[in-house]
Amino acid sequence: MPTQDQSAQLQPQRKELILTAALRTIARDGVAGLSLRTVATQANVALGSIAYYFTDKDGLISAAFHDFAQRSVEQFRSFYEGATTLEEARAATVSMLSATAGSRTDIILGSELYALSLRRPRHRMILLEWTRACQGVMRTYFDEATTLALDALYEGAILHHAMHVGETSTERIALAVERLTPPESFIFGTPSP
């Protein structure tokens, strides 16, 4: 039996295991297919462990999507690290779009969050925070109108890629990014008025 110190050390890991299992379950079965029992089995924890961290199924779903959104923003931000020129910002945008389009799990999770947020305001806030944070990264480099256009390209390109609607090759993505980011849209290093 673990000591009290060992149990305290396991708790953050246990919560992370539960969140990871919830996201895996959502990616495999959708939000509708998630049950606390399935998540407990997937995480290899007692069902009571979920109740310790989350008040109900909706609380678990909310926490899992919040975790997904945070990790997604960190990954999104990492593509732009070190970019200081228009060409570097364009290349970062293309890399980010191509990488996301290649992650079926992330596309499914993002789509599930979108669908859920249309029905439940609690989850809509997670979606809005996620969207604003990602747009904030792009807004460091591009003006607001360009940022919104790039965000729309992001949403459309990843869904089209996942659904095999049209070609979403890296070359096509690069061409779209170039067309959406004329030199005057690049604002990195420009003093604010």
Automatic annotation (TrEMBL):
Every HTH tetR-type domain range: 12-72
* InterPro entries associated with the record: Homeodomain-like_sf, HTH-type_TetR-like_transc_reg, HTH_TetR
Q: Name one Pfam family in it.
A: TetR_N
Q: Which residues bind DNA?
A: 35-54
PANTHER family assigned to the protein according to its UniProt record, in alphabetical order: HTH-TYPE TRANSCRIPTIONAL REGULATOR BETI, HTH-TYPE TRANSCRIPTIONAL REGULATOR RUTR
Q: Which PROSITE patterns match?
A: HTH_TETR_2
**Keywords from the UniProt entry:** DNA-binding, Transcription, Transcription regulation
Q: What is this protein called?
A: TetR family transcriptional regulator
Q: Which SUPFAM superfamilies match?
A: Homeodomain-like (SSF46689)
GO MF terms listed in the record are: DNA-binding transcription factor activity; transcription cis-regulatory region binding
| Statement: the UniProt record of this protein carries the keyword DNA-binding | yes
